[in-house]
């Protein structure tokens, strides 16, 4: 990659700063957030490339599509010049559009007081869905807050997604005992979200270890662990990457891909406060993993990087740590107001790098979408959400006895007594249930 396509300043590129007290010192390097001017202009380089083989892979951002959907460097050796089949690109776009419609609608619902909380993936749909698309259904996902769309992409019903947001009697994720957005499905190998940051990584290492013991290489189910940039400051992050590198059952690397959506904010803390490293991806090398940095707003680029990482992990290669650079264009959650701590003019520029617009424009250049298709897709997605919502909202709350289920195989006597006391009280005053 030439200097003109490099999107982060190389370490030490600035002149050393002299201080009166100590002579030359290293310049401060808050580089983990790419400079937006450069990010908008970034090109692409030869791929697949990973650290440690190619250190540029953790500083540059791999990208296939320009923001206008044109292909940066079509490769005649690859299908469509991009390495991605039209069916795959279209399938990703459909879910991305669906997730956008869902997020918009659910944010509105929360403001009306109809659900208690929501965490949207707006602007991060490519980073989310393309990562999920790189997997097979037998693979496992340990998601963070933004990855709910992966479960939908795997085929989980919209009904179940919405029931989880209401925590009603149809909530199969947590049977009404969690905040909204804590989706989970045993059938789809999607482990229920834990709110606690970075827990996904040690758990993903454990799942990958189990897969390695149960299945023979070179065709093992892979485990995807997901976190955000803020979670890289947690102790669990370091413990997990250490274990990921050193655990080699049967002499093979774990079937594991650790994925990080660097949306550049952890609520009000910018990514520069999480690390002084030039990128998050470069941390991979420090733990003996392979790593790469990808444009998270480019679905084709994310898919290509993740497919390469997944293939290596499946076959018995070294596990990967992948950073997808994106931006949280909305609030952290419905409990947050970003106008209080960041420059929303920057947000506007990131909105112009919309991943849905980019992928739809690419599919238009392929002739897969004709004018009006993208808009129709969005309308259909919104109609589907509204219609399902109207039905799901009619489902009543879960039975209060569910509070006592699913923790103990044999309910202890003290808990059984509490359950009986609650039943007796509700029988005496039926309206007391559910705060009515
Ligand atoms: C261990 C822990 N500390 C603090 C919190 C409160 N908290 C919830 S989300 C969040 C920020 C997460 O930021 P990031 O990891 O970048 O993910 P993002 O929300 O940006 O996707 C914090 C501090 C938590 N859930 N867990
Ligand atoms: Mg973040």
* Widest beta sheet: strand line-up: 3-4-5-9-8
Structural class: alpha/beta
Sum up the overall morphology in one term.
globular
- Strand content is 5-15%
Count every helix, treating DSSP H or I runs of 4 or more residues as helices.
Answer: 13
Q: What is the CATH class of the largest domain?
A: Alpha Beta
Q: Helical residue percent?
A: 25-40%
CATH architecture of the largest domain: 3-Layer(aba) Sandwich
Overall mean pLDDT stands at: 89
Low-confidence stretches at least 5 residues in length (pLDDT < 50)? 1-31
What is the first-to-last residue Cα distance? 64 Å
Gyration radius, rounded: 23 Å
What would your notes on this structure say?
- By secondary structure, the protein is α/β, with parallel strands linked by helices.
- It folds into 2 domains: 41-392, Thiamin diphosphate (ThDP)-binding fold, Pyr/PP domains (Rossmann fold); 402-435.
- Helix content is 36%, strand content 9%.
- It has 13 helices and 9 strands.
- Strand 6 and strand 7 (269-270) form a beta hairpin.
Question: What descriptive keywords fit this protein?
Answer:
13 helices; 9% strand; alpha/beta; Rossmann fold; single chain; five-stranded parallel sheet; two-stranded antiparallel sheet; 2 domains; disordered N terminus; 436 residues; binds thiamine diphosphate; binds magnesium ion
Quick summary:
With 436 residues, the protein is of the alpha/beta class.
């Amino acid at each position: 990659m030439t200097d003109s396509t490099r999107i982060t300043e190389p370490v030490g590129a600035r002149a050393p700063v002299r201080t009166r007290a100590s002579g030359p010192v290293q310049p401060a390097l808050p580089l983990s957030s790419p400079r937006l001017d450069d990010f908008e202009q970034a090109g692409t380089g030869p791929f697949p490339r990973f650290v440690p083989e190619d250190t540029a892979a953790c500083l540059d951002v791999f990208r296939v599509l320009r923001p206008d959907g044109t292909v940066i460097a079509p490769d005649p050796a690859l299908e469509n010049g991009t390495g991605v089949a039209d069916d795959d690109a279209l399938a990703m776009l459909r879910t991305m559009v669906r997730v956008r419609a869902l997020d918009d609608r659910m944010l509105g619902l929360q403001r009306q007081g109809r659900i208690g909380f929501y965490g949207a993936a707006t602007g991060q749909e490519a980073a989310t869905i393309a990562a999920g698309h790189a997997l097979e259904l037998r693979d496992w996902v340990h998601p963070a807050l933004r990855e709910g769309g992966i479960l939908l992409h795997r085929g989980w019903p919209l009904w179940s997604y919405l029931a989880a947001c209401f925590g009603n009697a149809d909530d199969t994720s947590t049977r009404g005992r969690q905040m909204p957005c804590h989706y989970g499905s045993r059938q789809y190998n999607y482990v229920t979200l834990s709110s606690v940051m970075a827990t996904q990584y040690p758990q993903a290492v454990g799942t990958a270890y189990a897969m390695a013991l149960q299945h023979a290489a070179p065709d093992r189910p892979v485990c995807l662990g997901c976190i955000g940039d803020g979670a890289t400051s947690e102790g669990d992050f370091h413990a997990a990457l250490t274990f990921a590198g050193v655990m080699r059952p049967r002499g093979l690397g774990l079937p594991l891909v650790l994925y990080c959506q660097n949306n550049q904010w952890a609520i009000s803390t910018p990514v520069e406060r999480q690390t002084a490293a030039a990128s998050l991806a470069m941390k991979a090398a420090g733990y003996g993993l392979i790593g790469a940095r990808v444009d998270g707003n480019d679905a084709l680029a994310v898919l290509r990087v993740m497919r390469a990482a997944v293939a290596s992990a499946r076959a018995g290669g070294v596990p990967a740590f992948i950073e997808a650079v994106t931006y949280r264009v909305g609030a952290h959650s419905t409990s947050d107001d970003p106008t209080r701590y960041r420059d929303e003019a920057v947000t506007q520029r990131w909105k112009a790098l919309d991943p849905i617009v980019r992928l739809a424009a690419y599919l238009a250049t392929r002739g897969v979408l004709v004018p009006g298709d993208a808009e129709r897709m969005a309308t259909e997605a919104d109609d589907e959400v509204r219609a399902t919502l109207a039905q799901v909202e009619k489902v009543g709350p879960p039975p209060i006895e569910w509070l006592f289920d699913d923790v103990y195989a044999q309910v202890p006597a003290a808990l059984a007594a509490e359950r009986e006391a609650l039943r007796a009280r509700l029988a005496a005053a039926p309206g007391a249930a559910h705060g009515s």
